[in-house]
Specification:
2 domains, about 75% helix, mainly alpha, Serine Threonine Protein Phosphatase 5, Tetratricopeptide repeat, about 270 residues
């Protein structure tokens, strides 16, 4: 881990060379501990930005009130005139500082708000932690070469034509052998389309099956369904309990992912969005 710590800041700052970036992201994809450290460093940087904004506000207020010892209108006007007579350049300088500081504050605040809106909304977090569908695994029986089903798979995996794939899989009824797999892919299609309520329903159908096809991972399906609930804003007590359970007793890598998600859901930048 130590060999990567010095590169985390460079990675978050976009300062890594192309070959270093490729190597770092390759390691990041498989190293959950490194991924967690990146999340922590990112949160620290975001918190520092918030403190910078608050400090700037405090300084501006201090500059505005600095030197004011009497609230009477007459004495205040006299003081301003006196300052101007003694050192007109100082008065102009303070005004310029205030103007620049205010402009910087507006830009920083707008930038943070925009960034938070792009990265900390329910939808953006759901898609950040979403795990893509697994490719079709071992299937048995006469359905192995089913042309219609394979058309849906091609549309989904190859063409990324989710509308067409949805149309194909939606025609498969619950008395057909491919039904559970079709519901599985429909859950992923709905997630990709941002139709989270439908995704929850499709994943429910899959999880209700007693025996899942060998290539499907029940834990992964549960994780994606939890993210679909996040996408709809269903962050109720049950959602929080499920997330906490994953953190405490969940299998890897879902426990680490749940911990990282929990940190982002409680980030100070969420307050900017919500």
């Amino acid at each position: 881990m130590n060999q990567f710590l010095n590169k985390i800041d460079d990675y978050l700052s976009g300062a890594l060379a192309a070959d270093e970036l490729a190597a770092f992201e390759k390691e990041l994809a498989s190293n959950t501990t490194l991924a967690e450290q990146v999340q922590i460093h990112q949160l620290e940087r975001e918190t520092a930005l918030l403190f910078l904004e608050q400090d700037m506000k405090a300084n501006i207020q201090k500059w505005r009130t600095e030197g004011v010892t009497d609230t009477s209108e007459t004495k205040q006007e006299a003081k301003v005139v006196a300052l101007g007579e003694q050192n007109p350049q100082r008065t102009i300088g303070i005004r310029r500082i205030l103007s620049i500081a205010a402009s910087v504050l507006v830009l920083v605040g707008a930038g943070i708000a925009f960034w938070a809106n792009q990265n900390y909304t329910n939808d953006s977090l759901a898609m950040e932690y979403y795990l893509p569908a697994d490719a079709q695994g071992n299937r048995s029986g006469a359905n192995l070469n089913d042309a219609t089903f394979n058309t849906g798979l091609t549309a989904f995996f190859v063409d990324k034509d989710y509308v067409k794939a949805k149309e194909v899989f939606s025609k498969i009824t619950n008395d057909e052998a491919q039904y559970v797999e079709a519901q599985y892919y429909l859950g992923h299609i709905s997630t990709q389309l941002g139709e989270y309520t439908a995704a929850i329903s499709y994943f429910d159908e899959v999880l209700a099956a007693d025996n899942l096809p060998a290539f499907l991972n029940r834990d992964k399906i549960n994780w994606n369904q939890l993210l679909a609930k996040l996408g709809t804003g269903q962050m109720d007590t049950k959602f929080k309990e499920q997330l906490d359970t994953l953190i405490q007793t969940g299998k890897a890598p879902f426990n680490q992912k749940a911990k990282a998600l929990h940190q982002q859901l409680n980030s100070p930048l969420r307050k900017i969005v919500f």
